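To: structure desk
From: M.T.
Subject: fold request, one chain
Message: Could you run this one when you get a chance? Sequence is below, nothing fancy, just the single chain.
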Amino acid sequence: MRPHPIPPVTEPLQYRAIGVVRGTYVPADAEQITRGLIRTEDGEELEAVVLGRLLTLMRRHLDLECPHLWVVYPRSREEGGLHLQMVGVWEPSTLSPADGEPAAADSTDSSPVDTSPADALPEGDDYFSVRGELVFTKPETGQLVVKVRQLPRADGQRPLPFKLQIQGTVPLEHLRHFVALDLRRQGQELQLERLEVIGPVAQRGNRGGKGRRDGRRDGRRSSPHQSGAPAAGRPAR
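Reply: Done. Structure tokens follow.
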């Protein structure tokens, strides 16, 4: 198992949205555990769905009565709050190191009660890494929106970009720039902890010769809640 559930960045303009949340997963249906919520230690209930191989791992190896450190892809709900796509679990102290994916385990049963020091991350729980284009910022209210593009699927289809609503103060001069954000979940929101501005994003498909100036004006006036619906698929790694 690799030493961190969030893979390192390999390209300067690599889009992604990934993080970790510790909590107990509560399925909406005992027979169909793909949808439910993560009940966190601070009392939040975060809407969640289970993707990929994690479903098999949960059925065979994890005690769902216990809290785990889940690896998730965040999405912003239209009505506010977070929606999480669960793709892995980080417990190197108990899970088999059969391969490098956080959700990979072949034989070891896992029923942790206390968090092992080996499972702790230097960033701490509820850490998120988001990289994308800053498309909205309102410093006076501490609101911003980042657009994240996704890799094409195996069938060649290209998923639509999605937008994440974030709490934090970023100057207007960084609008339409590619940014790398370190975030922390607080309640149902993602709070900005650290910002790195990578550079301006080339604008495609401008109509009528409109350039960055119009984008800057939109950044002041458009609503941060006009974000895309939760999208399936994986952010670019």
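Reply (cont.): The chain has two domains: 16-107, 127-202+210-221. Let me know if you need anything else for the meeting.
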